[in-house]
Amino acid sequence: MINWFSKFLDQSSDFLAPRKGLLPLIGIGLIILNFVLVSIFPDGFLIETNLFLHLGIIVALIGQMLAWAL
After folding, report:
1. Helix 51-69 vs helix 22-40: angle between axes, to the nearest 10 degrees?
2. Computed from CA positions of residues 51, 36, 31, 16, in that sequence, does the dihedral angle turn out positive or negative?
3. Are 66 and 12 in contact (CB under 8 A)?
4. Is residue 5's pLDDT more than 80?
5. Cα 25 to the center of its chain, rounded Å
6. What is the DSSP letter of 18?
7. Residue 18 phi/psi, 5° resolution?
8. Residues 61, 31: contact at Cβ < 8 Å?
């Protein structure tokens, strides 16, 4: 289990090191997707919880922290 996680971290850091802005862009895309869904659909689980908004903020923040560390 630990070997798998270590290998995953190595591969993901190798992938994300030259693409420092990828995760923040994905986060911004999720935030925009949430805005579009709220504008189009009045009700629903995704709209009431703002799931994509919260997920986008988390992904963007993690992307910023990883970009700074890498």
Report:
1. 170
2. positive
3. no
4. yes
5. 8
6. S
7. -80, -10
8. no
Of residues 19 and 27, more confidently modeled = 27
| Both tokens assigned to 34 | 């949430």
Among 60, 28, 34, CA closest to 48: 34
Would the pTM of this model clear 0.85, i.e. be above it? Answer: no
Name the nearest CA neighbour of 67 among 15, 30, 28. 15
- Extract the tokens encoding 3: 């070997």
pLDDT digits (tens, 9 = 90+) for 36-53: 999 998 888 878 889 999
Which of 66, 17, 67, 12 has its CA nearest to residue 4? 12
